[in-house]
Amino acid sequence: MHYLKRRRSPQRNVVTWFQRTNQTAPSLLPEVPQGSHHRSHPMDPLASPAHGWFPAPPPPIYCCTLTPALVAKAREELQEKPEWRLRDVQALRDMILKEQPNLRTRLDDAFLLRFLRARKFDYDRALELLLNYHAGRKAWPEVFQDLKPSTVKHVLDLGFLSVLPHPDPSGRYILCLQPGKWKPNDYPFVDNVRALYLTLEKLIQPEDTQVNGIVILADYTGVGMSQASNPGPFLAKKVVSILQDGFPIRIKAVNIINEPRIFKGIFAIIKPFLKEKMAERYVLHGSDVRSLHRNIPPTVLPGQYGGSAAHLDMSAWSRMLLDCEEEFIVEFCQPDPLEGVVLPEDMLLEGEAGGGPEEDPFRAVRSQLYYCY
């Protein structure tokens, strides 16, 4: 049975990836006692700036922060049993040490729990997701090299993305995207992806998000041919692959509002890369805010979407990320985690055929976009 398959006998022989690779940990990281199965989180949450509306990072040593209601939800939806939680984490940790001994990855409980929850505590699928998580960085260096908030401040200041300050009644934070604010002549599309990834990294820290997932609200006001055709199918496939198969977050719904006629062409580019379950979670509302309110209640939406919440301060999320600059430096500005690691041939984004920065983004989609436009 699958339930029995995932409960492998854990072993208690664990060291950090710094110790396994005989490297000296960067000075920003705290020391970890030899043989300890806990690796501290890179940042001390008490040292992080306080933002009252968004939870702080998890504590260095794991301590469950879920409410009783969320513990019950995790048990029902994610097959997470509190009494076995740390045993499951240890089992995944042992798999990593045994099957990928050269992988440089965090091994602390809080980090590994993200991957277990995203794959409903299936050890094998959680390990595959973790490898995809790191493989995505290797396959797309222009996104992940020197990835920190200060390098995408122009995207954050523009208001391309933000996070609504209040979650919906299901406890899901709402990631708000406004692609019409981006103009291809201003900066490369890949900068938007960098800002999006940093946002997801911050959103996934709280255990509430790991259990509840997130909702995306994409406002396509102002999107025209230049924005629609610029990424091209190759980049679209990379973005979708990372979100679906390379990041430990549950995207529960994607609400599209104010989409122009050209969106049919945009979605035609994206849909072939979406899994059926994810494609079904796309909801197109047009300009009908009443339709939007059936999916996201007006109490959490700002006035521009017919809601009763306060006006959306687009700079709030920018400040949140910029205040966490050091945290992201520790997380991303380190040696290649996959150096010396042999990945399966079918690993995410490895050996992608065709395409590249020099490919014509209009090829294969130009006629369809113009038809819709």
UniProtKB/TrEMBL annotation:
Domain CRAL-TRIO: 148-313
SUPFAM superfamilies cross-referenced by the UniProt entry: CRAL/TRIO domain, CRAL/TRIO N-terminal domain
GO molecular function, a single term: phosphatidylinositol bisphosphate binding
Lineage: superkingdom: Eukaryota
GO cellular component terms listed in the entry, alphabetical order: membrane
CDD domains named in the record: SEC14 (cd00170)
Annotated PANTHER family: ALPHA-TOCOPHEROL TRANSFER PROTEIN-LIKE, ALPHA-TOCOPHEROL TRANSFER PROTEIN-RELATED
Name the record gives this protein: Tocopherol (alpha) transfer protein-like
Taxonomy of the source species: Eukaryota, Metazoa, Chordata, Craniata, Vertebrata
Gene behind this protein: TTPAL
